[in-house]
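Think of the structure tokens as a kind of shorthand, similar to the way a musician reads notation: each symbol stands for something richer, in this case the local conformation of the backbone. In the example below we present two proteins back to back. Begin with the first one, reading the sequence and then the tokens, and try to describe in your own words what changes along the chain.
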Amino acid sequence: MDETFLIKLSQELIRNLPHWYGSDNWDSEVLPYRESIKDRIFTYKRIINRTIFNDYSLVRTTDINQLLEILALLEHSVEGLPAFYRLLNDDYSRSLLIMLLAHRKMGYRKVKLPLNVPEYWAMRKFASTLVKSQNKINIEFRDFVLQHMELSTIGFPLEIFFLPGGVTITFILKQYEYQRSLPAIKAQPGDFVIDAGGCWGDTSLYFAHTVGAHGKVYTFEFESDNLLVLHRNLALNPELSKRIEVIPSALWDKSGEEISYSLNGPATSLFNNKEKQGSLRASTLTIDEFVKGKGLPRVDFIKMDIEGSELKALQGAQQTMYKFKPQLAISIYHKDEDFIEIPRYLDNLNLGYEFYMDHFTIYRGETILFARTRPG
């Protein structure tokens, strides 16, 4: 066990013990906020304790027990995480990893992530003003309502049916750019981009704008309801759509397999487990086979957000990465083991990648691992 990693994680867990956040640390656009009776009673106890005793460090016995259990399990449950910590190339990424692990262990009641600041909520409020018309698309997933939005005022001359929070993440915070390094890790004009996990088309349009008229975006999305929204959004933007090719296949480590899934909107995932079977089947394709079949002259950037299938898809892109060494922006938040297995796999390719990490919400979703070959 890496002592520096263990000390910093332990310090972060202890630092957050006195906290007890509520709706101010919750994103109601993603999931309605509900406070249990037990939570409400403890909140009242905190208020009384602070008012009478001026004590801002109230800690429950159960909190201490939780901390002791976490610390006792660290030696076994975080095997591989110290290696990821050492692999990260800057202090920001390493500190963020510690905070994200604390958040995953202790929950939103205890840990507030770095993005939860007034400036973020101002962005969200501003994004809600970008609605162009009263046209909407109702989504069965969590009863989402996608609003018709126009984004030219934030530098993207396009229209889209989307959520204000999604606009904030994709287009304002620019989820698939790492701006904390020089040069930035991002798609460039003229790039050929693999957009793995097109969902409703926001990233397709973001990349199409970014790569310009001489670039190309290959968007992979297999879920039928998502494809309906994606194509409707592309139809709103005919000039950008010329740069986008949609491939209705599921990315995997082998082509030609039929894997089951169930409809779940943007959270649709493949069931790589015979014990879990969905009612529908998706045909798989590897990035390597796609790139070879298309005769692509290069792949400059790969983005992946495919609900836990990222490692499999990366394993099916090995030859592409060996040949072109593309920059990477890979989601690693769907499964705890992705924090270990994905960076380990990429590092073991020995392609000279350096790694960074960023996070784009106030909840556990949208952690992105960035990678690029070392300059020079």
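Once you have a description of the first chain, move to the second and do the same.
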Amino acid sequence: MFGNTGMASSTCYPCPQDPFYLAVAKGDVPGHSLVHKFGSATVGTTLSHIHTDGIYQTPTTAVALEFVSDNAGDNSAGLGAREVTIIGLDANWEETTQTLITNGVTPVQLDTDLVRLYRWYVSSSGVYSALGLQPHLGNIEIRVSGGGATWSTISNTPASFSQSQIGFYTVPINKTAYLLSKHISVASTKIADVYFVQRPFADDVTTPFSGVRRIIEREVGLSSGFSITSVTPKGPYIGPCDLGFYGKVNLTTGVISVEFELLIVDDGF
């Protein structure tokens, strides 16, 4: 029913116009979905996670978390962020989505402990967003409960864009991912090395660990943009499995940005 069978040959596969992927994006293919991830980081000359906060947290057990803004106007009746939506994996390595009301500079506890956090965003604001009108007034941080280590920050600099920038994803349990495409960009005047890595068996948390971090692809000496769309989707990456990017530049610091797209298939399909 779907795919390129019987169609004219194409210069790339998967292609954006391919009817199978369009049907998946529309939710018309049971057990299949698409994930688009992007991230950005200012990195130095040592290898770093491509994540605005410099590290993608990968604890072995679920952690109690809270979020807080540094501006009191990010509250349920304020002119800034009124709620945030947080997506990650719970203690069973299953995807969970939480939507929570903001409370300004007072921390708000997440309803569900997380073992991974790979996407979150401002989902309600006190202003109609436009350039010069900030949908969140402060920097909003997710951290370990009680003022502990930072997991992720949505910054209001250079503007409030209301979205995390985490260049990692963890495939949930009972799902399998296939890499469709990726894109990397590097700040001008910098030369970068970028690594795309996996950690399979992420839920194997006792020694000897079978979840060994493994490189999938490495691009060396990048000085601008790099894109690849595979002839055949790469994988499978069987959940729970960490996927994402590390990078470094040749001198001082520079910005690396990444995007990648995954086809997610439920077990049994």
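Compare your description with these statements about the second chain. The chain has two domains: 32-54+168-266, 65-154.
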